[in-house]
Amino acid sequence: MSGPPAHFLFLVVDMQQSNPRLRQLFGPVVESMGYELVGVEFQPRPPNALLRIYIDKESGINLADCEQVSHQISGILDVEDPIPGHYRLEVSSPGLDRPLFEAAHYMRFAGHEVKLQLHININGKKKFTGRLRGVENQEVVLDCDGEELRVPLEQIDKARLVPEPWPGTSERRAP
What we know:
Elements: H1 20-32, E1 36-43, E2 50-56, H2 63-80, E3 88-92, H3 103-108, E4 113-122, E5 125-136, E6 139-144, E7 147-152, E8 156-161, E9 164-165, E10 172-173
Helix pairs in contact: 1-2
């Protein structure tokens, strides 16, 4: 076969981090119900696309909370139809390995251990674990084994807290 090489374009919709449009759409409803909208993830993996909404409240989240929010979000999705195609809706607590979506989350959990996965390589790596120092000038500051790492917020694909052990046991708990 001769001629110019074939080129293929793959469009990847990256909505792993909190999607601003969906956050604006769902936020007022979730907050009016007495919950914090922690974040929104969309994973467009046909045929198993997933829309995941993380909610929280001071006393914790149970199944009934998730069901109530799911019912309200389903109504919004039916009316607004912000995502084309088929997908599954999941409403969840942030869990022990709580995801971090925005600068305020990084500030709130400064001092805790986190795992970061980046869009880009830094020193040949995309995954880092370290002690979160906070955010300065739109950069997440991390202490990785005594070395300071600064990562622009927009370069973070995923970030999660590392559950801390209960004092005197090997059991893990959320910070």
